[in-house]
Amino acid sequence: MTQDARMDHVEHWMAIARHTPLGILCDLDGTLVPFASAPEEARPDHDAVSLIEDLAALPGVVVAIVSGRPAEWLERFFPTPSIRLVAEHGAMRRGAGAWENVLNLDPTPLAALAEELVTLAARHPGSVIERKGTTVALHYRNVRRGRRGELIVEAYGIIDRFLTRQPAYERLEGILVTEIRPASVKKSSAVPWMREIAGPGARLIAIGDDVTDEHMFQALAPQDESIVVRVTETRRTFARWELENPNEVRAVLRYIHAMRAGHSPPSTTLPREIAPPRSPQITFDHELLVVSNRLPDFRQVEGEEGLRRKNVGGLVSALEPALRARGGMWLGWSGRTVPDAESVANGVIDDGTAQFAWLDYKEAWYQNYYSGFCNGTLWPLFHSFPSRVSLSDKGWNAYREVHEVIADVASEHVGRRGMIWAHDYHLLLFAHVMRQKGHNGPIGHFLHIPFPSPDIFSMLPWAGEVLDALLDFDLLGFHTQGFVANFLACVSSLLPARVTDDVISHRGRFTHVTAMPIGILPATFQEPPEPAIVEEIEGLMRSLGESRLVLGVDRLDYTKGIPERLLAFGRLLEMFPDWRGKVSLIQISVPSRADVPLYAEQRATIESIVGRVNGEFGEAAWVPIRYLYRSYSKAQLSQLYRAASVGYVTPLRDGMNLVAKEYVAAQDPESPGVLLLSQFAGAAVEMREAILTNPHHTDGMARDLDRSLRIDLKERKARHAKLLASVQRSNAVTWAEGFLDALSACR
Ligand code: GDG
Measured in angstroms, how far is the CA atom of residue 602 from the centroid of ligand 1? Predict the structure, then answer.
């Protein structure tokens, strides 16, 4: 800071400190009082209380403590009536001596929720339930890292049920705490209230550290000042100024007191201005940044103001508990493209449960990076379809360029020592570019698709560069030991690296390599469906008449082996004519990458096979194959899975295949169906009790399908019980937590 700027800064604060009327809104925990490991241990000490009392006694000054704490608790420490108190984020407030209940809610449902959460917390050491008048908070700061996900999943189940029935309440995420509170109150409500109390011409100073304080900062007017107490360097905020810790807050309050009381101002650290751009959105302490090509849970909503959350399941359900538990952020492409000549936008969405940072892509990136290098080069190469691999320098250059862009946005959201978890083949160079930008925190990568053998991988002209870049990650996760072995073989043959069982040393760095099969949240496939959902699926089932159902569900992709599966079904009807009229195949193909020519071709191939089989075997009252090129809700899928005698999951090659696990999770254990699974799906490694099949061998697959349809109830139950146990044991939460624990352990 230059001498002039320093003078301006001092004068600015002197003017505020002396302004009359002046209103001070100060948060307590983390702002005036340091954090303690349990909420009941953090109390305002004598120094803090007398400082606030002294300020409140000054003429022309109004002071409010604005806290999430209950009214009685605040009253105990700040009995002096001239101190204004805002409790429970604004639900209760004490004006000139008297408490006012801003809301009038029936306390019974909240009490029931609190009871349920207390029972849950009793099973999770370290978790604490804090009851306040109109709010309940679950603190999980002291729950062991690896155990937080499990707690959060269960807690959110309970909380979500409550919120559905009690729309007057909402959930608010703090730092390792989740709070359920009346929806209409926020700390922002304290701002106009204080302005009115302070009187005409008032300037306000708001000081806070938490995401709840951001609401207060947002509600301020241009003449007011906002000061954030930084938890880490990664925090983004609406505030204009920052202080390091509660000691600095107290020093500034003492400075204001001295300036007004006519004492000589103590030499003190004045708030530092936060360099713009400050966040246009509320975000908070990101211990963890997850990066994937796409934000999988967002879709652009036509005619509305942009992106909105839409629950379509998938990876987000696996990661969300970990994100919530760690106050994490997820960064990815918005799904929108802008013309190449325009600059790309990025921003943050906070939907109240997690933080999502998005960026738009230029049209050229979509063409050359996403459709080109990712889906035209890496996808077929990694799935061992060499004849479908397209290679171009343009694609490779775009791949590198987009990594740079994403890394720049990532650097805005995570501190240099923060933890980053990058996903999939779209981001193989991510650690490399982040290291170049100075990131030295742990970075992990999980590959959701297979890793090919060296003879296939070395088709890539940039094979050595990709491997070298991958070794800038601290941890590389794959679905199976087979993919790990392929990766290690590629490294050994293409790089001068030292390879042991699970650690590679290269350029003085160590990269850990591990097999960590992804799972699902099995209980979510057993939830009772809404009546409207039952009706649509029952209609579909009625159209099958007496036929037993064989079910295929996939994204429309050539790796999923849909034509091979349909041909084998036709072969079944040929080889085992008894099944004619008694069994139907429903194949659901979810539209995917429809603008890529290979995918459009695949669709035409499938439709022509369906036409052929139906033409050859169909009868007036029986359609052999129902082909549905559309998507269904998760609840509808669960119902279809449950109704199917055979889950027909036969990819030619697949990293894992979640449909196989979902099918098992959705079955009725008393009368389960049979999983017919390709031996080339990653899932086949864990799911040995499925009927394994070779999708390249049409006759063999037809025979395996026949066998699957004939298995008796006893064997079905025995196979299903074992499969279900494995699906439950190795689930989405254990996967995400396991990966993050392993990543922490790498350092
Ligand atoms: C990649 C890897 C790996 C399908 N239709 C609908 C729908 N789905 C859901 C399924 C399932 C998901 O999509 C598909 O997951 P897969 O695992 O089968 O396949 P990919 O999309 O290729 O995923 C794969 C996975 O990453 C995870 O690591 O297993 O190997 O290729 O969850 O239920 N969901 C909804 N409506 C549909 O119509 N809501």
Answer: 18
Instruction: Say whether pLDDT at 138 is over 70.
Output: yes
CA of 144 to the centre of ligand 1 (A): 31
CB 447 within 8 Å of CB 483:
yes
Residues serving a catalytic function are: 448, 654
Q: Which atom of ligand 1 is nearest to the CA of 683?
A: 29
pLDDT on residue 300: 42
- The residue type found at 497 is A
Phi, psi of 435 (to 5 degrees): -60, -40
Strands (E), 594-717: 625-628, 646-649, 674-678, 691-693
Going by alpha carbons, the residue nearest to atom 18 of ligand 1 is: 657
- Scan for tokens 């004619």, then name that residue: 580
Tens of pLDDT, residues 108-135: 999 999 999 999 999 999 999 999 878 8
Give the global pTM: 0.69
Q: How many angstroms is it from 639 CA to the middle of ligand 1?
A: 17
Atom of ligand 1 nearest to the CA of 448: 28
Q: Quick one: pLDDT at residue 298?
A: 53
Residues contacting residue 569 through CB under 8 Å, at least 6 positions apart: 550, 585, 613, 624, 625, 648, 702, 705
> Of ligand 1's atoms, which has the minimum distance to the CA of residue 446?
28
The Cβ of residue 104 has, within 10 Å, a number of other Cβ atoms equal to 7
User: How far apart, in Å, are the Cα atoms of 240 and each of 25, 64, 346?
Assistant: 15, 20, 21
DSSP annotation of 589: E
At residue 424, the pLDDT reads 95
C-alpha of residue 54 to centroid of ligand 1, in Å: 62
- List pocket residues of ligand 1, CB cut-off 6 Å: 312-314, 448-449, 518, 553, 555, 588, 590, 631-634, 637, 654-659, 662
Predicted local confidence at residue 173, as pLDDT: 62
Average pLDDT, the chain: 88
CB 224 within 8 A of CB 12: no
**CA-to-CA distance for 53 and 57, rounded, in angstroms?**
6
Q: Ligand 1 pocket test: which of 630, 640, 656 has the largest number of ligand atoms within 8 Å of its C-beta?
A: 656
Between the alpha carbon of residue 271 and those of residues 27, 31, 222, 250, the distances in Å are 16, 13, 17, 11
Angle, in degrees to the nearest 10, between helices 145-165 and 315-326: 100
Distances (CA, A) of 265 to 10, 270, 486: 11, 11, 68
**Strand boundaries in 102-184, DSSP class E:** 128-131, 136-139, 169-174, 177-182
Contact (Cβ atoms closer than 8 angstroms) between residue 234 and residue 223: no
Q: Are strands 346-350 and 329-338 parallel, antiparallel or unpaired?
A: unpaired
